[in-house]
Amino acid sequence: ALESDMAPVLVVATNRGITRIRGTNYKSPHGIPIDLLDRLLIVSTDPYSEKELRLILDIRCEEEDVEMSDDAKELLTKIAAETSLRYAIHVITASSL
Questions:
Q1: What is the pLDDT of residue 15?
Q2: Which of 9, 73, 75, 88 could cross-link with 80 by S-S, CB 3.0 to 4.6 Å?
Q3: What is residue 2's predicted lDDT score, i.e. its pLDDT?
Q4: Does an H or E element contain 7, and which?
Q5: DSSP string covering 63-96
Q6: Distance between terminal CA atoms of the chain?
């Protein structure tokens, strides 16, 4: 069913490591059965660096037509690193009102 052209995209997010598969005594990566794990594409993700966050926020400011000083952008980058990029983008939108 997962190999079919009409199969839905399955997104699984986990950080469980090697653990027991529920209902069995077997262990596997992330507790996912091996036959299912063999059919998955594993995409590793890393958090954005401050440089990348700053670039994303600069692009967003440009798209929103919001002018911001370098100090404000630096503070916004710090906010994005400590909380979330989504929150920092909402601050840009709110500040332009």
A1: 81
A2: 88
A3: 63
A4: none
A5: HTT----HHHHHHHHHHHHHS-HHHHHHHHHHHT
A6: 49
Tokens 């079919």 label which residue?
A: 4
pLDDT for position 42: 79
Say which residue the tokens 């692009």 belong to.
Answer: 59
29 and 18 Cβ atoms separated by less than 8 Å:
yes
Other CB atoms within 10 A of residue 72 CB: 16
Low-confidence spans in the chain with pLDDT less than 50: none
Does this model's pTM top 0.90? My answer is: no
* CA dihedral of residues 97, 81, 54, 96 (deg, nearest 10): 0
92, 76 Cβ separation under 8 angstroms: yes
Residue 59 three-state SS: helix
Distance (Å, rounded) from C-alpha 12 to C-alpha 9?
10
- Length, in residues, of the chain: 97
What would the two tokens of residue 95 be? 């500040």
Tokens 């059919």 correspond to what residue?
39
